[in-house]
Write a structure and sequence with these properties.
By secondary structure, the chain is of the alpha/beta class. It contains ten helices and twelve strands. The structure holds flavin mononucleotide (FMN).
Length: about 375
């Protein structure tokens, strides 16, 4: 049988073998606090590639040290990190999946404790730092950030470009700009966190300027062949004071002109909000951006079932689906989805052939 979910999708020079992709998942596991990925990251990301995912997106990876959500985040600002990432990208590509990386700057939501180490902002005496943002408005419960000046904003743009270059050098085949979940680029987009009166604030054009400049520079680095995704939060869920779906559709069109190939559509994260969470609750946002901006779009959020994912792609609500927690529960989610949709795939790991999903209990190899 065939399924829309298992139809390859071409993006510039890259063809992804299916449309069930691993969403970026922060692991907060660089114990040395040096941004260098380690065995945990290799096994975590590698297992999804072995498990049949089409594209495996590495977690929000900071473009500069002060852009880390926590001191334990991965980074892509130095050569040691590039070297370490190569081992991860080699393995993912060796399994036939596409290694992708989410380039990130946390802005005012940086320098925080990971869940199992503390709460709120990490103080300087414990290795924390002063955060930056469009305006000196704190995320509730965190220390206030310092507003970036013109020079600081130019440095952010160049940091994304340099990180993109390093990411390609590290073997990533797809780049994603993280402009969602209340992090720096989203902070510029939303009027709830950006009250600037210069060319970086006020009108939609001004609030979107930084994201567009970053995207243009990342496209320059990526050349013609490498796909660039942008993850957006399509709404702050605090209309009319916050960022809205209508604005997202408009900016998605501008992003397309700036060189983005795919809008990875999430929501929320700028402020605490009441969100009607349920299966596929962000799919309508992806659909609105896909039809409104005419750009390849992905859906994410409580998509944890093969048939649900198939329906989203087959009905044209999105071109591909990202899943996060279901892959963490079962790294072989994609292989299982192929089985449940009765699709023949040629990338079942040969080492695992003796463990098909429909194996009869009596199946044994006497000589082992
Ligand atoms: C442990 C964890 C870490 C996450 N890290 C990131 C991240 O690095 N970047 C990002 O854009 N989203 C991150 N997210 C959000 C997921 O990528 C995804 O959008 C969200 O979990 C909804 O999808 P799901 O219901 O399939 O898990 C994270 C979610 C979880 C649970």
């Amino acid at each position: 049988m065939s399924a829309a979910l298992f139809t390859p999708i071409p993006l510039r020079d890259v063809t992804v073998r299916n449309r069930l992709w691993v969403s970026p998942l922060c692991q907060y596991s660089c114990e040395e606090r040096d941004g260098v990925p380690n065995d945990w990251h290799l096994v975590h990301l590698g297992s999804f590639a072995r498990g049949g995912a089409g594209l495996v997106m590495a977690e929000a990876t900071a473009v500069v040290p002060e852009g880390r959500i926590s001191p334990w985040d991965t980074g892509i600002w130095d050569d040691a990190q590039v070297q370490a990432w190569r081992r991860v990208t080699d393995f993912i590509a060796g399994q036939g999946a596409v290694p992708a990386i989410q380039l990130a700057h946390a802005g005012r939501k940086a320098s925080t404790y990971r869940e199992w180490s503390g709460r709120g902002t990490v103080p300087a005496e414990d290795g924390g730092w002063t955060t930056v943002a469009p305006s000196p408005i704190a995320f509730p419960g965190y220390e206030p950030p310092v507003a970036l000046d013109e020079g600081g904003i130019a440095d952010v743009v160049e940091a994304f470009a340099a990180a993109a270059r390093r990411a390609l050098d590290a073997g990533f085949a797809v780049l994603e700009v993280h402009a969602a979940h209340g992090y720096l680029l989203h902070q510029f987009l939303s009027p709830a966190s950006n009250v600037r009166t210069d060319r970086w604030g006020g009108s939609l054009e001004n609030r979107a300027r930084l994201l567009l400049e970053v995207t243009r520079r990342v496209r320059e680095v990526a050349g013609d062949g490498v796909p660039v995704l942008v993850r957006v939060s399509a709404t702050d869920w605090i209309e009319p004071a916050g960022w809205t779906l209508d604005e997202s559709v408009t900016v998605a069109g501008w992003l397309s002109e700036a060189g983005a190939d795919v809008i990875d559509t999430s929501t929320g994260g700028l402020l605490l909000a009441s969100i009607p969470v349920g299966p596929g609750y962000q799919v309508p946002h992806a659909e609105a951006i896909r039809s409104g901006a005419g750009i390849v779009t992905t859906a994410v959020g409580l998509i944890a079932d093969a048939r649900q994912a198939e329906e989203i792609v087959a009905s044209g609500q999105a071109d591909a689906v990202f899943a996060g927690r279901e892959f963490m529960r079962d790294p072989h989610f994609a292989l299982r989805a192929a089985h449940e949709l009765d699709v023949d795939i040629d990338y079942w790991p040969v080492q695992y052939r003796r463990a098909p999903f429909d194996a009869r209990p009596s199946l044994t190899h006497a000589e082992d």
